[in-house]
Write a structure and sequence with these properties.
With 343 residues, the chain is an alpha/beta fold. The protein has 13 helices and ten strands.
Length: 343
Amino acid sequence: MNQFTQQLEQTARAMVAPGKGILAIDESMPTIKKRFDSIGVESTEGNRRAYRDLLITAPGGGKFISGMILFEETLHQSTAAGVPFPKVLAAQGILTGIKVDKGIKALPGHPGEVVSEGLDGLRERLTEYRGMGASFAKWRAVITIGTGIPSSGCIEANAHTLARYAGLCQEAGLVPVVEPEVLMDGDNTAEVCFDATERTLKIVFHELYRQRVALEHTVLKVNMVVSGKKCPTQAGVQQVADLTVKCLRSGVPAAIPGIVFLSGGQSALLATAHLNTMNAMYPQLPWPLSFSYGRALQDPCLKAWGGKAENVERAQRALLHREHCNSLACEGKYTEALEKEAA
């Protein structure tokens, strides 16, 4: 038995506690630069620290957020008063997570497909992160839909790295968040997304089993089954909910303690509506359905902040509103009237 078994169980349960979700603030350097460019703010270390300070210290977040996924730079940073960010989160009852993959690279022999890297030295890094206060980790694999893809070779390569990563996490006492993301950037229908997601999930869980990963100590982070952004006919909210739940029932074992969705480029309102419809229409699933949004929680907050210290409180209110809406969506209790009240 793993020496961390009891701790892993407690952490996994806490991550998917009723009415709570995970806030992803783990954007890589190129991604955070794009976000800052959109509001005319330079991506300096000081500005990144100030923005993530705003997110981490937002009052009341602990009511709706179970954990935050940090970028490595953020894990090493502190508030303006010198308090390390993991300590600030712990004081609010929020778990500290850490993104540990090193990004995507082209997969040889597979044009248009990628694989995530970062396994080398991961065992040592996980021990360091745990010592700094992290209790869970995340690894993102990227699956692209296109002509003749995703290939089985690409899905299998990414599934193997996800399983290797997950095993190392559990060995180190960290709950792994396993994130196979089927991108929504193409012109494909929701049905094509369903097929790619179902194939991916079945191969990922087969590989987790082969690598002896304890599913009961693993959280799945996955895309919803949606139409590609360039598809002329977009699936409606009910269709997305139905297809997503059907896909999860087909590909995800009941042993998983919970499933959290990525927003993947959906608008803030649509990501909330999709989650709410799933939970309202399908209350008897074997796992709770929650959220682990980055952009869909942060976008209104980022725009309200605009890089100005005098806007921090307004930005934090915008963040708390989206957290509250998605907390209600976890229980199927969100209504669009909440948006008008906050406007």
